[in-house]
Every structure is written in C-alpha cells, then in structure tokens.
Amino acid sequence: MEFSRNRIIKIAVMLVFLCCMLFANFFAVRMMLHYGVDTYFYDKLLVAYTVGGAKGLKMELEKIPLTDKLPRESMLAMDFTARLETLTDPEVFLKDKVEKSKKMVNLIRGLRSVAIIFMFIIFAWQVIVNSTARFKSKKSSGV
User: Fold this and answer.
1) pLDDT digits (tens, 9 = 90+) for 63-118
2) How is 16-57 classified by DSSP, letter by letter?
3) Among 63, 64, 100, 106, which has the highest number of CB atoms less than 10 A from its own CB?
C-alpha cells in the first residue's frame, strides 16, 4: 500500500491540527487552571504576610482548610505549612512563587494563542485549497 505525496501531506496537516486542538482546548486550559490556583494561593499568602507578618500568614494558613474551595489549595497549604518552619524569609519565597506562576500562566496562554492561530491558518488553507480544486473541476467539466 503506497501513499501518495498529497495523502501524506493531508495526514500530516490533520495530525498537526489535531495536536493543536488538543493542546489549545484541553492541556493548556488544565495547565492554566493549575498555575492559576498556585498564583491565587501564594498571592493570598503574600498579602497576609505583608499585612499581618508571620502571625497573619499563619492565621491565613489556618483558614484555608475551613474554606477549602479547591483540593489543590488544601494540598498547597499542607505543603507550605510543612515548609514554613525551614524558610528564613517567607516573603521572598512567596514573591518568587507568585512570579513563577504568573510567568507560566502567561507562557501557556501565549502558546495556546499560537495554537489557535495555527489552527485557523490550517483551516483557512484547507478551505482555499478545496475551493480552488472545486473551481478547477467545475471549469474543466464545463468546457
């Protein structure tokens, strides 16, 4: 079974389109949610530390299991509570975590936008190729 060059190109384009669609609609959204929760959590703790110092930070950490909106937030709270004793400067740690999470969200958002643009280009290219083929077939059959 031999594949023609056109058939291989069509399969490759379809696979690229499928990968872009899966990334833009599933993976990127989940990753943005993951890093968004991290950003929200660490930013909330940073505000608590800025306003109330170490006491305010511990008080905010104690509130999190009670409000428990997201399971990831509870997991981050347990992890941070265990790590808090070893931190010399919690403010630097929290600022670093917030900045890293924000950068990752922006990177993923940018990659998602590129994937959507790429899907649009592939879709437009397929429409143009199909319409020119259709126009050529009508022109050749009408002559």
Assistant:
1) 887 776 778 888 898 899 889 889 889 999 999 999 999 999 999 999 999 999 99
2) HHHHHHHIIIIIHHHHHHHHHHHHHHHHHHHHHHHHHHHHHH
3) 64
Asked if 34 and 126 touch (Cβ cutoff 8 Å), the reply is no
Q: How far apart are CA 62 and CA 95, in angstroms?
A: 20
Q: Which residue has the tokens 């010399």?
A: 88
Whole-angstrom CA distances from 75 to 45, 64, 79, 81, 126 are 14, 10, 6, 10, 46
* Terminal Cα distance for the chain, rounded: 35
Locate tokens 């399971």: which residue? Answer: 71
DSSP-derived secondary structure letter, 88: S
